[in-house]
Write a structure and sequence with these properties.
The chain contains seven helices and eleven strands. With 288 residues, it is of the alpha/beta class. It has a single domain, classed as Nucleoside phosphorylase domain (Rossmann fold, 3-Layer(aba) Sandwich), CATH 3.40.50.1580. Strands 1, 2, 3, 4, 5, 6, 7, 8, 9, 10 and 11 form an eleven-stranded mixed β-sheet that branches. A hairpin with a 2-residue loop joins strand 3 (39-44) and strand 4 (47-53). The longest helix has 25 residues, at 222-246. It is globular. The two termini are 22 Å apart. The model has no long low-confidence stretch (mean pLDDT 94).
Length: 288
């Protein structure tokens, strides 16, 4: 049994947490480069929260340029036990209108320009992504969003595209044919890296628009997206307060906490010491 430390990765429109007590901003260094911003650490309802704006203050970092490895690494170094990601998304379904909150439980990764693993030559590991989110944290996030008054859809497949451009109509129709429910630009490789770092991960997707698959409707414009993001962000901040209030006083272990136990494949004598040093925070528990 141990205490919760919830890492919150704030997406488009969410750049701070309301009501964070004893808050302090700290810079955490990572061997994987610069994180998106300083970490803001404080407490909500007696639980420790660590906040990181995914795109940096002022939304200065493009989706492709977000250093997801550094972001997950610094959250791990800050003692996070779980990670809740909050992201702006487009809807690929008529029954998920703007303003909906979708608790994603599956992902399709269509990104092409991002480093997707902490591991590599000199220390190879293969984690399972069959079930890419933590069911416990996802359920708590869904309940908190509902308590905050958000229209919540539990479950959904998130198509992660490279961006920064929005989809073509042909792409949008293709993703719908694949069975995708929502589309965004940042959940991958973030969710993969959280799993490699043994951090249970959940994602609240906040719908801002219908992408561009609806015939006869105007294409996506940033101005309309920003207006919906602002409304969504108000509910997102209320959701975090509800989540903090509902967390159990102690945190029971998750199977994800030890998912690297069966993931390492490189023989000890063949491991690269330089890479092992970089992996100290995310995999030190199993690397000795």
């Amino acid at each position: 049994m141990s205490e919760w430390t919830i890492g919150v990765i704030g997406g488009s429109g969410l750049y701070a947490i309301d009501g964070l007590e004893d808050a302090q901003s700290i810079r955490v260094d990572s061997p994987f480069g610069e994180a998106s911003d300083d970490l803001v650490i404080g407490t909500l309802h007696g639980h420790r929260f660590v906040f990181l704006p995914r795109h940096g203050k002022g939304h200065r970092i493009s989706p492709t340029d977000v250093n997801a490895r550094a972001n997950i690494d610094v959250l791990k170094r800050a003692g996070c036990t779980d990670v809740l990601a909050i992201s702006a998304i487009g809807s690929l379904r008529e029954d998920l209108p703007p303003g909906s909150f979708v608790i994603a439980d599956q992902f399709i990764d269509r990104t092409v320009n991002r480093i997707k693993s902490f591991f590599g030559t000199g220390m190879v590991a293969h984690v399972s992504m069959a079930d890419p989110v933590c069911p416990r944290l996802s359920a708590m996030a869904a309940a908190a969003a509902e308590a905050a008054g958000a229209p919540v859809h539990r479950g959904g497949t998130y198509l992660a595209m490279e961006g920064p451009q929005f989809s073509s109509r042909a792409e949008s129709h293709m993703y719908r044919a694949w069975g995708c429910d929502v589309i965004g630009m940042t959940a991958m490789p973030e969710a993969k890296l959280a799993r490699e770092a043994e951090l249970p991960y959940a994602l609240i997707g906040m719908v801002t628009d219908y992408d561009c698959w609806r015939e006869g409707e105007a294409h996506v414009e940033v101005e309309a997206v920003i207006a919906q993001m602002q409304a969504n962000a108000t509910l997102a901040r209320a959701t975090l307060l509800q989540l903090a209030a509902s967390l159990p006083s102690t945190r029971s272990a998750s199977p994800i906490d030890t998912c690297l136990d069966f993931a390492l494949i490189t023989a000890p004598e063949a491991r690269d010491p330089a890479l092992l040093a970089k992996l100290e925070a995310v995999a030190g528990r199993v690397l000795g």
